[in-house]
Every structure is written in C-alpha cells, then in structure tokens.
Amino acid sequence: MNKPLAIITGAASGIGRATALHFLDEGYRVAALDRSQAGLENLEQIQPGDDIETYVCDLVETDQLPALADRMINELGPPRVLVNNAGICLYADIVDTTDDMWLRSLNVNLVSAAALIRGFVTAMKTVEGAAIINVASRNALSSSPRAATYDAAKAGLLALTRTMAVELGGDDIRVNALIPGFIDTPVHGDLLEDEVFAENYRKLIPLNRFGTPDDMANIICFLASEKAAFITGQGIIADGGQISGQNYTKMFGDRESFASRQLDND
Fold it and tell me: Region 200-211: what's the mean pLDDT?
C-alpha cells in the first residue's frame, strides 16, 4: 500500500477510463467504480496487474455508498484522490420530466458525490496532499433545452465543490471541479457520426474540435497533483473556448456585407 490510491467513479468508459489509465501511469493504485461489469473487466485487461481494483455499483443507490466506502478503506487503505466522474443525462421536456427522472439524475450526478465524500473524507484527512475532483459540465453554466435534471444537478455539483473546499481546507484537502465542454465519449452514441451536426457544432468551439477523454484526464491529474497545491474551490472550464463566445465569421461565412457592416460601425 505504499503507492497512493485514487478512487474514480464512472471509470469503465470515457473520461473516467482515461483518468484511471493516467493515474496508473503516474504510479497510483486505482479503485475503479462503475455499473458496467463488462466495462470494468475490459479496463482490467487493458492494464492488468495488482494496482487496479474494480467495484461494480449503481450510484443511484446512494444509501449504500457509505458502507461501500468503509469496505474499500478496509481493503485498500485511505485514498489520496477521489474523482467523482460518473454522470447521467436524461433528456425530456419539462412537462414530461418525472420525479423518478429527477431523483435518478440528482442521485447519480450530485448526491452520490456527496455520499462518497462523506464516506471517504475522514480517511483522506490522514493522507498528505489529499484532493477531490468533481466532474461537472458546461451545462452547469450554460444550459440546454430538455436537460433540466442534468443542468440543475451539475450546477449543484459546482456549489458542493465550493462548499467542500471551504469546509475541508483546514484539513488540507483540496476540492475542485472540472467543467468539460463537448467531449468525444461513448455517452453521445453515434451522434458525432452525423457529419452535418459535427461540422456545425465545431463552429461553436473556437479551437474547432471536440475534446477528448485524455484532454480531461490530464486536467484531473493536474488538479490532484502537488502542482495544483494552492488551487481549491475552483471550476476549471475545458471546452475549447465555447463558453467564452463564438466567432461569427466562422459561423456565418466571411461575407462582404458582414465585414462592411463591422467597418461601418467602427
């Protein structure tokens, strides 16, 4: 148990899987949580060895998480890093959004993070340089239609991040959030195979590309490292510049009338 331990939820695919692999490469032991047993088994095959342990769990069942945390601490020791990455987005018009959808979204995106922090934080206080990273979303700051449950839950996760940073700072536990933009992960299904959608959406992103899981994993590992020792309570936006604004020339074309109107109003 000499190697530090990182616990990662939603670790079977996408950002979580990339983050698990990055931490393993950096010499951590990793405890990977996900509801997909097949995905976790695949992760173990990619990086076989004694440094990875997997736990199948459904974060909807938040009342079971403190007991799971106790079990993991007994088996693995106290974690240095907790990454609350798991998420779920349930799209529906507000009139069709049921209480069950609200509860499922809030539990996976927000309440599970709070439950795991509650379960691990006492043990983390014994580890030097402990850090918690919550993976939120650009939707916490800039909303989308039909995503009320997701947007509200991710906004709550940002608020939880700030509260925990203030509350745990005296124990030398840093708490930050990653705020990803559109990341090319399996959660989007075959959406990016739609060339019209992909081409037009990229116009909203100043860097003109979608983010990758490795892009996000690099930031998470930085926030967990000593290089970020004076950063806490922050939401780090990584969206290729989308939330900063759009390049209207790129969106609507380099039309002479558009350019001339700009010159006329200089």
Answer: 94
